[in-house]
Sequence to fold (682 residues):
Amino acid sequence: MSRIWRKGLSISVPGPQPGGTIDRQITEEASLVIPATGDLRVEALALEGETVAQGQPLFRDLRHDGLITCAPMAGRVARLDIDSARRLRQVTLFHEPGAGRYERSPLPLDQRDLQTLTEHLRAAGLWQLLRARPFGGLADPARPPAAIFVMALDTRPGAPDPRRALDGQEAHFASGLAALAALTAQTEGPIFLCHREGAAPVQGPGPRIRLLPAAPLHPWGLAGLHIHAQRPATPDRPVWDIAAEDVAAIGALLDTGLLPETRLVSLTGTGLRETRLVRCQPWADLRGLCQGHVRPGQNTILSGSLLEGRPARWLLGTDRQATITAYHPSHGRGHWFLSALSHAARPLPLIPTAALEQSMGGALPAVALLRAIASGDAETAQTLGVLSLLPEDLALADYVTGAEPRLSALLAALLARMAEEEAA
Amino acid sequence: MNRGLWDRETVAALLLIAALPLALTWLVLDGPFGLLRLAVFLVTAGVWHLVWMLARAQPPSLAGALTALALAVLAPGELGPVALLLSTSFGVIVAELAFGGWGRNVLNPATVTLAFMGFGFPAAPWPDLAVQLGWASWAMLAIGLAFGVLPGPVVLGALGTLGLAALAGLPFGGAMPALCVGLALLVADPVASATTPLGRWLNGALYGGLCVLFLAFWQDAAPVQIAVSAALLASLAAPLFDEISIALWLRRRNRRHG
Fold:
C-alpha cells in the first residue's frame, strides 16, 4: 500500500545512457590518495618498489585490529607515502600483469561463523565495503547490526545497473548473502535485499533474507530511505549497508579464495563522446578510463554521480561511476556588493515545493527535517530520523533546490557533531 | 555548477507567472486607476526591500511583487495615503523582512497588512470583487499546482470544504470570487502554509471551514473581509497543524519500530 505513494525523481544525465557492451580495462596506474583531513594510521605490509600480486595485503590499519587493505591489481608499488606519524598519504601501483593473483584458502561452509567470517573479511580487505549507520564509516564488529541492507538497485543518474554486475555471479552472490546472514546471527537481524520492482536477483531467498522491491526513482535506490522506513538506525542498533556486487565479492572470496579483480563502473556525462560501461579495478585511474573518449576541451572528472560526485583523479572508495562534465570556470568575483549580498543570508531559505518533497522521496516530513538540519538542531533532526541518513541521501535535495551551503555538507557536519557527543 | 532550478527566486518567479491571469484580469477591470494602485504598493514594498538590503544585506525577493499584487486587489479603497503607507510598511516589515526575508517568514505579509487595515481602519470599505476575478484565481491555482509551487492539499482542502458547504445549500451570495482570490493569493502560500501532508489538508480545510462559519454567522461582513480574517486565522494555525501531523507520524513510527 505505502509503495503506491512513494515519490521520487528520475534524473537523466545529458548524453547517452549507460548500456550496451561492457569493456574490461585495467588501467596502468591505480592509486589511493587520502585527503589532508583524513587520518589513517597504517603499518606497511609491502615496500616501495616491491611487486605485489592482486589481492596481496598492502597495509594494516593501526587503529582497527586486523583490518587490512589489499592491492587492487597486480603491480609494483610505485609510491607508498607514509609520514613520520604513520599517517598514510598515498599509495600508487603500476600495473604488472605478470605478478598474478594472491590466493587464499577458501573458507569451508561449516567454518562460516560470525567470528571466523569477521576475521577473514577484515584480513582480505573486504570489511571496508560494509558501511555502518548512524554516522557512516566502518562497521564495528563489537556492535552487531540490527539489519543489513543489500542494494541491488542504484538510481543515481548514470549509475550502472547492479543486476548486470551480478551476471554470471549468482552463486557467489548467494553465498555472500548467506555470509551476511551469519554476520547478523547474534541479533537475528534480517538481510533486506533491495531491488528493482519485478526483477529480484535471487529466486528463493533464504530464511532471514527479505526482498524489498522499489520503483527505480531517486532517492529510493539509496539505502538511506529504506533504512529509515524499515529499520531506523540508532547508536545501540546500527544498520549496515552494502552494494550487491560487493556481496558477490564476499561470496567469491569465501568460495574461491580469490578477490575479484574488477568492479562494474559507468562513465557518463556531457564531457564524453559516448557513455562507457567498463569493468575496472578499484582505485582505477579515471583519466586512463576516459582517454580517447572525451570531447575536446577542458573537462572535470567527478568520482560518483552528477549529484554527489567529488572531483577526483582516482576512483574513490566504493564508487561505481564517474561523471565527466565540461569545465565551467567560476565567473570571477563579481561586484563586491553582490558578493556581500550573496554571502550574507546563509543558509538560503528553503521554499517548500513539490520538487523538494519529491527529492526527499515523500517518506518523511522533508521540510521539517531539512530546516532542522539547516539550523543545526540535532535534537529535532534525530527525532525525525536523521540517524538513518548519510550526506549522499540529501544530494538530490541539494541538486533540486540549489541549496547553499549544500544540505549534505550541513548534514555531514551535524552527524560529525552528534557522533562526537555520542562517543563522549 | 550542477544544480537544479528550484531556488527561492525561481519559485517566486513561477508564483508571479501563475498570478499573471489574475493580475491581467484585474487590471482590465480596474483600468488605469488599478495600475496606479498596484504601482503604489509595488513602490512601497520595493522601497522597504531596498532599505533592508542596504541595512541588513538581505537580498530582495520577487515575492515582494506578489505581496503588492495581493494588496492592490484586496486592500480596502478610500484609505488615506498615511494609512496605506503605514499598514503596508507594517505588514512587509513585521511579517516578512524582520524574519529574514521571504522563505523565513511565518505569516504571509499581505495577510498581515490586510488584517492590520481591517482592524486599524474599520471604516474603509472593502472592495467588491468581480466574478471574473474568481475564475482568474482558479487559473492561478491551476498553474501553481501544475508547477508544484502551490501546496496542493491546502488548495484541495479549502475548495473541498467550500464545495461541501455549497452542496449543503449554504447561500454564498456573491462571496465566491473573494474567497477564491483569498485562497489563491493569501492562503495557498508555500512558505506560510503548513508543510506536512496532513497539516496541509487541515490548513486548507480550516480556511474553508472558517469562511463557511463567517458567511453563516457574521452578518455584516464584506466577502473580502471574511476571506482575509479566515486566511489570517488559518495561517496562524498552520504551525500547529504541522506539529499535530508530525506527532501523529512519530507515534505511528514509534509503535512500528519500538
